[in-house]
Amino acid sequence: MSEVRAEWPLYEVFVRGKRGLNHVHVGSLHAADDDMALRHARDVYTRRNEGVSIWVVQSKDIAASSPDEKDPMFAPSNDKVYRHPTFYEIPDNVPHM
Amino acid sequence: MTDTATDPLQAGFDTTIGHGDRIEPRDWMPDGYRRTLVRQIAQHAHSEIIGMQPEGAWIGRAPSLRRKAILLAKVQDEAGHGLYLYSACETLGVSRGELTEKLISGAQKYSSIFNYPTLSYADVGTIGWLVDGAAICNQVPLCRTSFGPYGRAMIRICKEESFHQRQGYELLMTMMRGTEAQRAMVQESVNRFWWPALMMFGPPDDESPNSAQSMAWGIKRNSNDDLRQRFVDMSVPQAQALGVTFPDPELRWNAERGHHDFGQPDWDEFMQVVKGNGPCNTQRIAHRRKAHEEGAWVREAATAYAAKQAAAAHGQEGAA
Ligand SMILES: [Fe+2]
Ligand SMILES: [Fe+2]
C-alpha cells in the first residue's frame, strides 16, 4: 500500500466546445505526463462531441491538443449515437423520460 | 461553534449561502461544511465506481453486439461520473489515493443498491430504468448545490443519465414484447429492485439527523422523503406503460394528496447492507481492491516512463 504516496500529478482540463468559443475549464484528472493527460481528458470529458480541442495544464505548464489531432481524437464519438438519449424510442405515453 | 455575529469569515460564508451563491474551493468554509461535502462527494464518487460492477458483469453476456456496445458505453460513463466527482472532492483538499484507500478499507461508504446481485439480463434494464431513474431524482437538485465544483460535476452527470435510463427502459420494453418467459424475467427483476431503489433516497426524514444541517448549508436541496415520493409518482405510470407491477400492496393513488401512497422499505435490511452485510459487499470491495493492486505496476511504469521522457527533454545529463 506504499504506492499511495506516488500519485500521478494533477492536471486541469480546458475544452473548446466548438470553433469560435474559448477553452473552458471542465475539471481535473491525474496523469503521469502531458500526453496521458490529454488522452485521459478526451475519454473523461469529451465522450459526446463536447469539444474540438483540449488544453491540459499542470501547475505553470500548458499543453494543448493541436487542431490536426481533432479528427482522430474526436472521431469515435460520432458513430456512437447510442450514447445519446434520442437514440431510444420511448412511446409518447411514458412520462418524465 | 463559531460566533457568526463577530466572525467576518463565517459572516461572509453565511451571506454567500443566503444569496444562493456558490462556494468555491479557495473560499473560507466551516470545517463541518467541508467534512460533510468530502463525505457526501466521496460516497457519491465511490458509488459510481462500484456501480460499474453489477452491470459490467453482463457485458460479456449481452445478447447482441448492439446491446453490448450500449452497455459498454453506459458502464464507461459511470467510470467518468466517478472521475468527475473524485476531481470535485479533491478541490476540498483530499487526495485521490486517500479516497481510494478509504473505499477499499471500508472507511467510506457507497450506495447500498450496488450490494445487490444482477441475477438475470433483465437486471441490466431494471437498473437503467429504476436505479439510474432514482439517481436522476437525487442528482437533478444537486446541480444547484452550494459547492461549485460539486454542482458542476452533477450538471455533467445529469446530461448523461438520460441515456442510461432510456436504454434500460427500452431494453425492458423489448423483452416485454418477447416471450412469456421474458416478461416473467422482467417482472421478477423489477420485484427484486423496487425496494432497494426506494432505499437509495436514504432513511426517512425523521431518522436522518444530518439532513437539516445539509439543507441549511444548501448542500442538499430536498428531503429524502420528498425525493422518494417524487420517484414513486414518476415510476408508477412508467410501470403501467411497460406492463409490470411494483411489489407493494400499499401502493395506490391518493387523490387528496395528489400523490401515490406507498409502503416503507425494510429499513433493518437497509442498515444491514450499509453495515457491510448485504449480499455482495465483500465481493464488490474485493474486486475493487484487486483492480487497484493489480494496476500498481502500470501506474509505476507510466511514472518511470514520464520521468525518463522528461529527463531526455531536458538534455543528456539526466537521460542515462
Ligand atoms: Fe452515474
Ligand atoms: Fe447512470
Task: Explain what the structure shows.
- The complex is a heterodimer of chains A (97) and B (320).
- Chain A contains two helices and four strands.
- With 97 residues, chain A is an alpha+beta fold.
- In chain A, strands 2-1-3-4 form a four-stranded antiparallel beta sheet, with helices on one face.
- The radius of gyration of chain A is 17 Å and the shape is elongated.
- With 320 residues, chain B is an all-alpha fold.
- Helix content of chain B is 65%, strand content 2%.
- Chain B is built from 13 helices and two strands, in the order ααααααααααββααα.
- The radius of gyration of chain B is 22 Å and the shape is globular.
- One fe (ii) ion binds next to helix 6 and helix 7 of chain B.
Tags for this model:
heterodimer, A: 97 residues, elongated, B: 320 residues, two-stranded antiparallel ribbon, 13 helices, globular
**What integer value in Å does the Rg of chain B equal?**
22 Å
Oligomer: heterodimer
Bound molecules: fe (ii) ion
Fraction in beta strands of chain A: 25-35%
Q: Report the total helices of chain A.
A: 2
Instruction: Specify the biggest β-sheet of chain A.
Output: 4 strands, antiparallel
Shape of chain A: elongated
Total count of strands of chain B? 2
Rounded to an integer in angstroms, the radius of gyration calculated over CA atoms of chain A is 17 Å
Distance between the termini of chain A: 44 Å
Secondary structure layout:
The complex is a heterodimer of chains A (97) and B (320).
Chain A: E1 10-16, E2 23-30, H1 34-45, E3 53-58, E4 61-64, H2 70-74
Antiparallel strand pairs in A: 1-2, 1-3, 3-4
Chain B: H1 8-18, H2 31-50, H3 52-56, H4 65-90, H5 96-104, H6 122-142, H7 148-176, H8 180-199, H9 211-216, H10 224-242, E1 252-254, E2 259-261, H11 267-277, H12 281-294, H13 296-313
Antiparallel strand pairs in B: 1-2
Residues 78, 132, 135, 161, 164 of chain B line the site of one fe (ii) ion (FE2).
